[in-house]
């Protein structure tokens, strides 16, 4: 409110306080509205904002409407029913009001403006119907708690043609120089530069690497995850590393491959796949894709683009270290790598060596058989298996993994995980741990394996502790024999 309008309303309030009748007060308001160049309603609102009250009593039916809640819901259901293919309401509000008038509904007995106000007041209007779904903040509690992974296509689709030396193709012109009548050109045009990105949800620390392939490949995902989880060539200048507890991905074919599923299961990483076309579920990595494209790839375009993957990935790793160490994150106000460096020893799970990492990805669950001592053998290593109803000659599924305390994970046929203890042997080949009995050694009592419920019942019956007698097991034999008369031959000699 400017100074001139303020003086106008202050002068009007002084005159209103001195006025004796309602007619005088109404004339003062009309005169002040004319001076200010506003409507009567705006004049009353401006005066009320400065603290003036007319003292007029409200109507006894104020706040009550002829429209019932059922009438409002009826209109809202009609709006919701008339939706287009995109799920948007396709029935205008004025048409809904006109329709209610024609049908003699309650919503048609009031004005259009009043209907709209009541619908909005009750949260049933078009603005509420078209509002986005309410969002929540997903919270991670420490670095490497949750990481988000995603694949996108880089602005630079192709590298320089090794044979012709032609200039690089940009995204808008991708495929323009290829004549698809020739098969080799048709195949070559399908290879594009893909950007693989992973972010730490807590700190915002990230790692980016490029791959030049026709599409998403599980082998590239495994290679990228190793490079993201392992220590970087830049050392402490780029400290981001370690195995996360949870990895959030989109439902792409590469992340559903057995290689990736096996790898994450062996690493103890819980995989979370969000629903299709829900980029908000992985907003951290999607935002990083956008920032990376505008910063790194924007600079790369001005420099003439890279000529091969080695050059491109070398620049990408250095830029990720610089950007992660210098640029503040919008949520916590610190550089991402500075926030990530607050990780504690118990939160940091170091990545295994490259050979072990890829062996975990390629490993499949195997089937083994327990011997009478409940031992399981695999590649010159033996484990004692314990668990519910474990017995000799039992078939089990197992995976050898360096991340389990015993070096192996074992499941029975019902999917229940069993405990395993790796056995150690002395020079004579006897087990040094597990269940064993040593003759003439009173300090090492013998140990027996627990019997299964069926074995316990069998032992009790055989020993005479438990006798089962079922009477009448042969009753009704004559009656059953009589029903078998159809077996007699008839009409034959």
Give the helix/strand class. Answer: alpha+beta
Structural shape: extended
Strand line-up in the sheet with most strands: 6-9-10-11-8-7
The count of helical stretches stands at 16
Describe the protein in words.
The chain has 493 residues and is an alpha+beta fold. The chain is 36% helix and 13% strand. It is built from 16 helices and 11 strands. The strands form 2 sheets. The chain has a 6-stranded antiparallel beta sheet, with no helix packed on it. The radius of gyration is 39 Å and the shape is extended. It starts with a helix and ends in an 11-residue tail after the last helix. The model is unreliable at 167-183 (pLDDT under 50).
Quickly describe the structure.
It is built from 16 helices and eleven strands. The chain has 493 residues and is an alpha+beta fold. The strands form two sheets. It has a six-stranded antiparallel β-sheet with strand order 6-9-10-11-8-7, with no helix packed on it. Strands 3-2-1-4-5 form a five-stranded mixed β-sheet.
Features:
extended; 11 strands; single chain; 6-stranded antiparallel β-sheet; about 500 residues; about 35% helix; 5-stranded mixed β-sheet; alpha+beta; about 15% strand
Present the secondary structure layout.
Blueprint: H1 3-18, H2 22-36, H3 40-49, H4 69-81, H5 93-103, H6 112-121, H7 126-129, E1 146-153, H8 183-188, E2 192-200, E3 206-213, H9 218-229, E4 246-249, H10 258-267, E5 270-273, H11 283-302, H12 309-326, H13 336-340, H14 354-362, E6 366-369, E7 375-378, E8 381-386, E9 395-400, E10 408-411, E11 417-422, H15 453-463, H16 477-482
């Amino acid at each position: 409110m400017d100074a001139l309008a303020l003086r106008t309303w202050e002068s009007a309030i002084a005159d209103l306080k001195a006025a004796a009748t309602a007619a005088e007060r109404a004339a003062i308001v009309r005169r002040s509205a004319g001076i200010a160049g506003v409507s009567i309603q705006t004049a009353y609102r401006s005066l009320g904002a400065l603290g003036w009250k007319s003292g007029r009593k409200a109507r006894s039916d104020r706040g009550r409407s002829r429209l019932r809640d059922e009438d409002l819901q009826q209109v809202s259901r009609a709006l919701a029913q008339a939706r287009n293919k995109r799920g948007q309401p396709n029935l205008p509000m004025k048409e809904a009001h006109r329709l209610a008038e024609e049908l003699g509904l309650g919503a048609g007995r009031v004005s259009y403006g009043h209907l709209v106000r009541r619908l909005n007041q009750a949260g049933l209007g078009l603005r509420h119907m078209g509002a986005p779904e309410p969002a929540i903040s997903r919270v991670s509690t420490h670095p490497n708690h949750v990481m988000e992974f995603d694949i996108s296509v880089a602005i630079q689709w192709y590298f320089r043609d090794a044979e012709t030396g032609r200039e690089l193709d940009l995204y808008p012109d991708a495929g323009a120089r290829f004549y698809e009548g020739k098969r080799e050109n048709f195949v070559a045009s399908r290879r594009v530069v893909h950007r693989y990105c992973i972010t730490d949800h807590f700190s915002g620390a990230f790692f980016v690497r490029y791959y030049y392939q026709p599409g998403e490949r599980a082998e590239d995902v495994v290679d990228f995850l190793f490079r993201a989880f392992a220590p970087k060539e830049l050392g402490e200048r780029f400290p981001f590393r370690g195995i996360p507890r949870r990895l959030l991905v989109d439902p792409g074919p590469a992340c559903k491959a057995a290689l990736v599923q096996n790898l994450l299961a062996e690493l103890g990483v819980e995989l979370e796949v969000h629903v299709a076309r829900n980029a908000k579920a992985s907003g951290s990595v999607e935002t990083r894709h956008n920032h990376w494209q505008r910063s790194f790839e924007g600079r790369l375009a001005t420099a003439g683009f890279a000529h091969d993957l080695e050059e491109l990935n070398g620049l990408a790793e250095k830029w990720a270290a610089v950007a992660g160490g210098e640029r503040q994150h919008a949520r916590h106000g610190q550089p991402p790598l500075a926030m990530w460096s607050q990780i504690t020893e118990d939160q940091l799970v170091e990545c295994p060596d490259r050979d072990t990492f890829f062996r975990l990805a390629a490993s499949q669950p195997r089937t083994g058989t327990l011997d009478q001592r409940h031992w399981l053998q695999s590649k010159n290593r033996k484990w004692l298996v314990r668990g519910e109803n474990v017995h000799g000659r039992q078939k089990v599924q197992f995976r050898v993994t360096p991340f389990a305390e015993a070096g192996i994970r074992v499941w029975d046929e019902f999917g229940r995980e069993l405990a395993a203890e790796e056995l150690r042997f002395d020079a004579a080949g006897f087990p040094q741990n597990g269940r064993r009995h040593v003759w003439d050694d009173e300090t090492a009592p013998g140990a027996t394996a627990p019997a299964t419920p069926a074995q316990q019942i069998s032992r009790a019956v055989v020993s005479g502790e438990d006798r089962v007698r079922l009477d009448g097991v042969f009753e009704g034999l004559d009656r059953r024999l009589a029903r078998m008369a159809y077996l007699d031959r008839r009409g034959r000699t």
